[in-house]
Design a protein that fits this description.
Layout: H1 2-8, H2 14-29, H3 41-57, H4 76-86, H5 92-95, H6 102-112, H7 115-127, E1 132-135, E2 153-157, E3 160-171, E4 178-185, E5 188-195, E6 201-206, E7 218-229, E8 233-234, H8 240-276, E9 278-279, E10 282-283, H9 288-316, H10 322-346, H11 349-352, H12 358-365, H13 375-389
Parallel strand pairs: 1-4
Antiparallel strand pairs: 2-3, 3-7, 4-5, 5-8, 6-7, 9-10
Helix pairs in contact: 2-4, 4-8, 4-9, 6-7, 6-8, 8-9, 8-10, 8-12, 9-10, 10-12, 10-13
C-alpha cells in the first residue's frame, strides 16, 4: 500500500485507517452476516444499529461526510480504498452509514438543502438515527433509464404543492423517514422533500428482488394529493434533472468502490477453496483452467481499481467525470460480475449454496449492470458523445 500511496497520492494516514476498517469488517461485520438477514428489512436495521456505535468508536464512521457532521472528511481517492475495504461485507456500508440511498441523499442535502432542511433532515441522517429514499423510477410508461419520461406531477396549490404519481423499485423505501421525490412541474423536473408521515404518501409494498441486504428493501410508493409546503422544495424549482445528475456520478463511483470489495471477497474465498480441494488426484489450484480464472479475475479487479481511482482523482481535482464515470461504471459493473461468477464456478456446487457468501455475492452484484444506468444506455450515450464531439480514442 505504501508504494501505491506514493504513486496515486493517497493520504499518509490512509493505511492505518484502512487497517482499522479491515479489522472492523473481519471482526464485527462479517460475523454478523447470515442468510436470514438478506431479505429481512427490520432485522437488518437492528444489526446495523448494533454496528454503527462500534464503527464510531473505531474512528471509521461516515468516511464520506465532513468532520463537522461526524465523518472522516476523506478525499475521493482515500474514500475509494476505504469503500472497497468495507464493501467486502454485506453490512459494511450500512454500518459506516455510507450506503445508498442515504449516502447520495446526504450529498443532495449538503449541496442543495436550505439551512432549515439541513437542520431537520441532515443531522439525523448523518448520525444514523433515520433513513431516507430517493423516489425517481416509475412503473411503465413512466421514468426509468430515460428520466425525461417522468409522469409524477407536482402542481402549485394554496402556497404549496400537491404531488400525484406512482414510484417503484425505490431502494430504502421501507422504513424511510423521508423521501426525496422527483416530480414534473410546469417549470420542469423538481425535487421535493416528503415526510413519510404525510398522508398523501403511502408505501404499498416491498418488491422482492434478486439482491439481498438492501437497506430498506425496494419499495413501491403511491402519491395521491400529497401536499407539501413551498419550503419542501429541495434546491430550485425546475432544476431536478440537473440535481439528479449531480448525485448520480458520485453514487455510481461509490458503487464501483464497494462492489470491487465484494467481488474481491468472493475470489478470496474461491482461491482458498481450490488450494484445499483436491479432485482427480491433484489440488484444483493446479488445474490450468482454474488458474486461468484466477488470473482473469485479478486482471479485472486491477483494471477496475485503476479506472475507479482515476475518476476519484478527477473528482478531487474538481474536474468533470461525466465521460469517465460512465466508462468506469460499465466496465466495473461487468468486471465484478465476471469475477464473482468465476469464483462460484471454481467452487462448484458449494458456490451455488448459502454455505458460503459467494452465491449471495453473485446475486448482489448482478443488478449493478442495471442500477445507476444500464450498461446498454451508458454505451449508447458514450458513443454519441464520442462521435458528436470528435473525441479521439
Amino acid at each position: 500500500m505504501n508504494d501505491t500511496a506514493a504513486i496515486f497520492g493517497f493520504s499518509p494516514h490512509l493505511e492505518a485507517l484502512r487497517a482499522r476498517v479491515r479489522r472492523f469488517i473481519d471482526e464485527e461485520a462479517i460475523p454478523r452476516e447470515r442468510p436470514a438477514l438478506a431479505h429481512d428489512v427490520a432485522a437488518l436495521d437492528a444489526v446495523l444499529a448494533e454496528l454503527r456505535p462500534i464503527a464510531q468508536r473505531a474512528g471509521i464512521y461516515a468516511p464520506q461526510l465532513p468532520v463537522s457532521l461526524g465523518g472522516q472528511g476523506l478525499s475521493w481517492r482515500d474514500r475509494s480504498v476505504v469503500l472497497e475495504e468495507l464493501g467486502r461485507s454485506f453490512l459494511g456500508a450500512g454500518a459506516l452509514n455510507c450506503a445508498p440511498p442515504d449516502q447520495p441523499n446526504m450529498i443532495s442535502l449538503i449541496e442543495q438543502g436550505s439551512d432549515a432542511q439541513r437542520a431537520r433532515w441532515l443531522g439525523p441522517l448523518a448520525s444514523g438515527a433515520i433513513r431516507s429514499c430517493f423516489a425517481m423510477t416509475e412503473p411503465q410508461p413512466g421514468a426509468g433509464s430515460d428520466p425525461s419520461m417522468l409522469r409524477t406531477r407536482a402542481e402549485r396549490r394554496d402556497g404549496g404543492w400537491v404531488i400525484n404519481g406512482r414510484k417503484w423499485f425505490i431502494s430504502g423505501a421501507i422504513g424511510a423517514r423521508f423521501a426525496i421525490v422527483l416530480a414534473m412541474t410546469d417549470e420542469g423536473a423538481t425535487q421535493f422533500l416528503v415526510d413519510a408521515d404525510n398522508p398523501g404518501m403511502r408505501v404499498l409494498r416491498n418488491i422482492p428482488g434478486i439482491d439481498g441486504y438492501q437497506i430498506g428493501g425496494h419499495g413501491e410508493i403511491d402519491f395521491t394529493d400529497c401536499r407539501v409546503g413551498a419550503d419542501d422544495v429541495l434546491g430550485e424549482v425546475g432544476r431536478g434533472f440537473e440535481y439528479a445528475q449531480v448525485r448520480l456520478e458520485p453514487a455510481r463511483i461509490s458503487h464501483c468502490m464497494r462492489f470491487i470489495g465484494r467481488a474481491s471477497r468472493a475470489m478470496e474465498i474461491a482461491q482458498r477453496y481450490v488450494r484445499e480441494r483436491s479432485s482427480f488426484g491433484q489440488p484444483l489450484a493446479e488445474l490450468q483452467q482454474v488458474q486461468a480464472m484466477v488470473a482473469d479475475a485479478h486482471i479485472d479487479l486491477h483494471a477496475a481499481r485503476l479506472m475507479t481511482w482515476h475518476c476519484a482523482a478527477r473528482m478531487d481535482a474538481g474536474l468533470s467525470v461525466k465521460h469517465e464515470s460512465a466508462m468506469t461504471k460499465v466496465f466495473v459493473s461487468e468486471a465484478v460480475n465476471r469475477v464473482a461468477d468465476r469464483a462460484a464456478q471454481m467452487m462448484g456446487a458449494l458456490g451455488m449454496s448459502d454455505d458460503t457468501p459467494v452465491s449471495m455475492i453473485v446475486r448482489d452484484l448482478r443488478p449493478f449492470r442495471i442500477y445507476d444506468g444500464a450498461s446498454e444506455l451508458h454505451r449508447a450515450t458514450l458513443a454519441r458523445r464520442v462521435l458528436k464531439g470528435g473525441i479521439a480514442p
